[in-house]
Structure formats: C-alpha cells, structure tokens
Amino acid sequence: MKLPDLTELAVRNLRESLLRNSLTTIGISVGVASLVAMLSLGIGLQQLASRRLMKSGLFDTVVVTSRRDLRNFNREEERNGPAPGESRILDEPTRVEIEHLPNVLEAYPDIRFITELRYEDKPHLTTIAALPASAKSNDAFENVQGHFFSSALAPEAILQKTFAEELLGKTPKSGVDETNVKDLAAPLLGKELTMRYAQRVATNDSSGDQSPPGAAYSVVSREQKLTIVGVAELDPESMRGPTRARVFLPLKLAESLHVMQPTDLREISRAASDKPIYSSVTVRVKNPSQVQTVENAIKKMGFNTFSILDASKSIQQFFKVLDVFLGIFGSLALAVAFIGIVNTLVMAILERRREIGIMKAIGASDSDVKKLFFAEAGAMGILGGLVGVALGWAIGQVINLGTNVYLRSQSFPPEHFWSVPWWLVAFAVLFSFLVSLAAGLYPAGRAARLDPVQALRYE
Amino acid sequence: MSSEISPQNSAPAKHTVAIHAEQLCRHYRMGETLIRAVDGVTLEVRAGEFVALLGSSGSGKSSVLNLIAGLDRPTAGRVVVQDRNLAQLSREDLAKYRLHTVGMVFQSFNLISSMTLAENVELPMRFAEVVRRKRDGLVREALSRVGLQARMNHRPSELSGGEQQRAALARALINRPQLLLADEPTGNLDSHTGTEIMNMVREFNQQLGMTVVMVTHERALAERYAERLIFLADGKLVGDEANSTVAANAGTDHARTGGGYA
After folding, report:
1. Could you give the percent of chain B with pLDDT greater than 70?
2. pLDDT tens-digit readout, A219-231
3. Residue B139 phi/psi, 5° resolution?
4. Do B98 and A360 touch (CB under 8 A)?
5. Does any domain span residue B128?
6. CB contact under 8 A, A12 and B126
7. How does DSSP classify residue A147?
8. ∠A323-A326-A332 over CA atoms, to 5°?
9. Looking at the domain assignment, is residue B214 inside a domain?
10. Are B123 and A359 in contact (CB < 8 Å)?
C-alpha cells in the first residue's frame, strides 16, 4: 500500500475511536511536554550561566605572567622552558607583541595596588584596580548607578557596592544583602576621594660604583583627587578572591601615576627606567574557542598563562550531565505514554479483529496490516509530539514568567531560564515519533500475524 | 462495449481446469480430538463454471472454500488454482493471489462498518496500489453495476442486507478477479433479495466468464443457478453431479464470452 493511502487510512482509523486515541495522544503530549520542559530548563540554565560567565569576561580572558614571577612558579613549566632568571620580562613591548597575536582583541596591564583613600577626612584602606575602556561591557557595570569613566585619563572612580557601604558607614546585615545600590549611590556620586599612593620616580643617581647604571629610583608619596562617578552592584572581580579590588580607576590614568608595583622590587635593575614592568597582562581573545590557541602562542613566547578554560570545560560537563538527568526524568512520562500506545493499539486489534480479517480476505498482505498499525502509532506520535512541544513551551513560559515576577519582587533583574531551541523541537517530535513506532512494534506484528479465517469468525 | 470491470486479460480459456484439488485435507486438533474438517477431497472446477458446494452444517464446505480462497492452508494434499499450488505460496504471494485472482462474498457481507460503500469498494484497489485518479471512476462503475451509485457515500449500517451484499459483490469485482467465491451469499437475505443477488452472480458468471464456486446448504438455490453440484459430508466429497435443470433454464451460453455486460 502506498504512503498516502496508508496515512489516509491511519488517520480515518484514529478518528473512529476518537476519545481513546485522543487520550492516548494527550498521554504522549504530556510525556513530550515533560521532556521538552526538562531539557529546555537544562539548556536555559546552561545558556544563562554561559551568558553570565561570558559577560564576566572570564571565558575570553588569558592572564599572562612572567616566569620570573616566582609566585607562579611551576616546576613542570620550568623543566620545559628557560629558567626563571633567564626568562623574558613582561614589559610594554611584550604587551604590544601579545596584542598583535592573531585573535587577540586587546592586552592590557594589570595595575593593582593596596592604598589609602580618604573620604570626608576618614581613611579607608582598599585594593584599587585599573580598568580598560572595554570593561564597560562587563555585566558588573550593566546596572551601574551613575556612569562609566568619561575618558581613559579622567580622574574618576567607580566603587563596588561594599566599599560604598563602608564609605557611608553602613554595615550590611550578615547573610542578607538587601541594600539598594541606588540609595548608596545617591549621596556619593560626584563626591571627591583623595587617593594616597606610592609613586616610583626614576633617579639619575649613580654615586656608587657597585650600582649598575640607571638602577636607582625613589618612592614618593603622592595624592590624587578622584571623583566618584559610579557605584556597581555586582563585583566585576568576584572570581579573583582575596586580591579583588573594590575601587576602579581608568587604565590610562593609573598608568600615568606610576604607582609602585610589587614587580618593581623584583626587577630592580629595570624599574628605575620610565618604562614600566607589569606583574601580569590581561589578554582578551575574540572568541572563547580561540583561548587555547592564544594561550599556546603566548606560552611559546616564554610566559606563563592562565585561563578559566578548564573550569569552563567542567561547567559544560556539569550541564551535559544535568541535561542527561533532566532528560531521563522527562522521559519517564514518555515511557508511561509508550505503555499507553501499546495498550491502545492492542485494544484496537481486539476491536478490529474482524476488520483485519476482512482486509486480509480481500487481499491485504501481512505487511499492509503491519504498516497500517505502524502508521496509526506514528500519527499519534507526531501529533502528540507537536502538541507536547507546544505544551512544554507554554509550561516554560509560565514558569519563566512566575520566576521573573518573583525576581522582580526581590529587586533582581529578570532572566531567561527557559530556552526551546529549534533543534529541541525537531528532536522532541522525532523522538516522540520513534517512541510511538517502537510502541507499535508488538501490536503491529500481532495484527499482521492474525489468521484471517479466525479473524473473520470473530464477532 | 467492453467494461473496465471484467476479468483480467490473463483469464484462462473456457473449459480449462481453473481449480484442481487433490486429496485435500484440513485437520484441526482440539485438545486430544482430531477434527477432520476436510478429509481427502479431490475435485476439479473448469474455467467459467458455476459450481455449488452443498452440505449440511459442519460438512466442510466452507473449509474447502477457504482453502481455495487461500485464506487457509491444507494440512495435506494440494489445491492448484491456475497452475499455482496454493500450499506452496508464501504468505505475501497468497495475499497477492487473494488480491488479484479471487473475489469473495460472505454470508455476513463483511463490509467495514466505519467506511462508506465507496471506500469499501475502493479498499482492494488501495492494496493493489491502483493509481488514485483511476480509482474513483472504477468505484462508480462497480457500484452502478450493482445499482448502488446513489448510495456510495452511505455507511453499511444505513443500507439493507441486500444492498450490503450488492456492495460486497461490487468490492469482490473491483480488481477484476477470475474466481468468485461466495460463502452462503443469500444466507442472511429474504428470498426476493436472495434471488436478486443470485441473478447478479449468475450474470457475472455468464457475461464476464468468471468461475464461481458457491457454498450453500439450500439445494433448491443451488439447483436453480449452479451447473454442477458437489456434495460434502463429514469433510468428504460424497457426490458430484451436473445440474441439467440449470442448463435448460439458462440457455444463455452465448453471453459467456467475457465481453462484459455494459
């Protein structure tokens, strides 16, 4: 029998026992909906995490340090490359060289120091870090109160929420973080901070014969006025742990201040010059997939690198496992639907025993009968799959909506926890079709094997 | 004028052997008891012949018909229809044989209740994979032959017994078989409607040259229409005689040319 005839007969047969077949199809729909809901939650969460992590700038970032920095000393790397003492220095020409590597978006020095800030004549000690202009797209500054730096050299500062609280003398309740950033920013924006810092000034003192030429500098205490232009809700350096900063300055401004860096002591012979030496350089790669290539290229130059790529791999692995588990739970409902299809078709054989006998008597082959039952199972599968996808999507939307209402009530920005990509729609319908065909295997085989003489006697 | 609904071109020449059964047996085992439904039946039916299988209930006449129809397989012996030993055909080949060579009508009509008459008549053509555009015309023609064109969109439950049997006849003819097998075709009909159906069967036999094997327990009916009467009792053939009455009644041999009845 040809496919159009088969489809037509299958659909007409399904219409004959409308209630029972509809209930079976609803069973399949619920199964598919549960599968779609579970998987789309998994995918949605994965996308949310990726989105957040990508925006955090961690996944497209490689941190480069010199092998001379023994804090990052690694015996394995020492064996494979030059000894720390003979390794290259992380200076401005090197930074430019790195920036010109393929797939590198930018490479900027990590300027970071602990110093004193005075606000309304009260001293506050904190870590200060410099940020390039590109940091504006970092999600930490997404909901910043105030604005990002007006220029790369502007004497401006952005505060992290906890430091703003400290300046205002507010102590957050332990475990509860309910302070409104807007309320914190209002009294601070436009106010002035005075930063005291240690400036490295090269001197031309060559009094002693023992000293190599140019290897002298003095450390001078300086002050810099800064205007508070923003208060950030999120911590842009949350992954940095104890070294994270709570006050941020424009990068060019920080560079121009020549603040004394830990590397200056290590590289004493070179620090006296005006050319800076960096403790680390942060490299932003065009695409996270190119992080490994860029890392390898930098390693070849003789530097140590660190990226969060390995961490991202474990996160991806975690989500894959989560998807599998969610998929298994979602499939349980489909397994119940599977039994429903078998039951419906076996009942149909009993009911239509005589009809099968008639069809065989007038020339239907075993395979015609088998195909007809398969087509009925398949039609229920496709229909159930389509309805199930729609149902799963609707469930997702409702839960997403409910979650966002809750988030808003808790002053959190709304998020998309749910994602139903096209491949999931296609997969769900195909899976439903295949499961239904599998459920039709036994009934179809049984119908095909019916003895026509016996079947014709059946009343 | 030739009709689309006439036996296929490969119809055997008149008076050649259409059905040959030899020592045909169909035994069933029910627990310890062996039931000999058909027990060593040997018979021959010539092409274009109208044969009646007569016997009381349980005599084995329907079992013989099922074996000739390829619905059942013999436990011993052989049944050869148009040079094909049905016992040796595969299940698929037997289905093809039923589809193209045999048309069947039953006592209980056996129309599919969920389908209209047109759909019932069309069904064998779906199995035979006849192209869709040809099917509508053939269905109309077959139903008009049996006077049911106006009822083609009715379901069997909306028709009388006679109309249902006429529709079953139209379905049996639709794939232009050479063999028409009828199992008590008038068993559920009143005598007037029964006569109407039997006249149609005779018409197909005489005008289309179809070989007809009819099972009945009514001797009078058999004598009125069949050329030959075969008697069965307890699964055995107990008599085989030519029916002289029908030859005298019919007198329509001129029509047995397969030239159609349009």
Report:
1. 88
2. 888 889 999 999 8
3. -65, -45
4. yes
5. no
6. no
7. -
8. 135
9. yes
10. yes
3-state secondary structure of A444: helix
Residue ranges of alpha helices (H) inside A89-238 are 92-99, 161-167, 181-188
Quick one: which of A36, A32, A27, A26 has its CA closest to A326? Answer: A36
The CATH number that applies at residue B242 is: 3.40.50.300
Task: Give chain B's contact residues with A (Cβ, < 8 Å).
Answer: 66, 69, 71-72, 91-92, 95-96, 98-100, 104, 106, 110-112, 114-115, 123-124, 126-129, 132, 171-172, 175
Q: Of A3, A232, A63, which is closest to residue A139 (Cα–Cα)?
A: A232
Coil/strand/helix, residue A305: strand
B121: nearest CA in chain A? A362
Contact B120, B156 (CB under 8 A): yes
DSSP class of residue A277 equals B
| Cβ-Cβ contacts under 8 Å, A366 against chain B | 91-92, 95
Secondary structure of residue A5 in the 3-state scheme: helix
Residue B215 lies in a domain: yes
Q: Which residues in chain A are closer than 8 Å to B115, comparing Cβ atoms? A: 12
In terms of C-beta distances under 8 Å and separation of at least 24 residues, what long-range contacts does A19-24 make, across chains too?
A20/A344, A20/A347, A21/A344, A21/A380, A23/A340, A24/A337, A24/A340, A24/A341, A24/A343, A24/A344, A24/A380, A24/A384
Length of chain A: 459
DSSP for B102-150, written as a single string: EEEE-TT----TTS-HHHHHHHHHHHTT--HHHHHHHHHHHHHHTT-GG
Chain segment B24-67, per-residue pLDDT in tens: 999 988 888 888 999 999 999 999 999 999 998 888 999 999 99
Mean pLDDT across the stretch B107-112? Answer: 90
Q: Which of B57, B110, B169 should one mutate to test binding to chain A, selecting the residue with the greatest count of A CBs within 10 A?
A: B110
**DSSP E strand stretches across chain B:** 17-30, 33-46, 50-54, 76-81, 84-85, 102-105, 179-183, 211-216, 228-233, 236-242
- The identity of residue A92, as a single letter, is E
Strand partners, A65: A280, A304
Domain presence at residue B86: yes
Question: A242-251, A353-362, A390-399, B176-185 — which is least confidently predicted?
Answer: A242-251
Contacts for A305 with CB less than 8 Å, ≥ 6 apart: A62, A63, A64, A65, A295, A298, A299
Q: Does the beta-carbon distance from B126 to A16 stay under 8 Å?
A: no
Tokens representing residue B76 in the block: 């011993």
Q: Which domain holds residue B65?
A: 17-111+176-250
Extract the tokens encoding B196: 């109407």
Q: Which residue of B has its CA nearest to A358?
A: B110
Q: What is the DSSP string of A341-372?
A: HHHHHHHHHHHTHHHHHHHHHTT--HHHHHHH
- Report pLDDT for A71: 58
The 3-state DSSP class for residue B87 equals: helix
Instruction: Report the first-to-last Cα separation within chain B, whole angstroms.
Output: 6
Here the tokens at position B71 are: 């619905």
Give the residue carrying structure tokens 């290229």. Answer: A297
- Domains contained in chain B, number: 1
Q: How many whole angstroms from its chain centre is CA B108?
A: 14
CB contact under 8 A, A364 and B96: no
Which ipTM value was assigned to this complex? 0.87
Q: Where are the domains of chain A?
A: 3-54+315-457, 59-308
Give the distance from residue B245's alpha carbon to the nearest chain A alpha carbon, in angstroms. 33
Among residues A372, A359, A381, A367, the alpha carbon closest in space to that of A429 is found at: A381
Inter-chain residue contact A363 with B71, CB threshold 8 Å: no
- Beta strand A280-285 pairing with A303-307: unpaired
For residues A451 and B29, give the distance between their C-alpha atoms in angstroms, rounded to a whole number. Answer: 16
Interface touch A363/B127, C-beta < 8 Å: yes
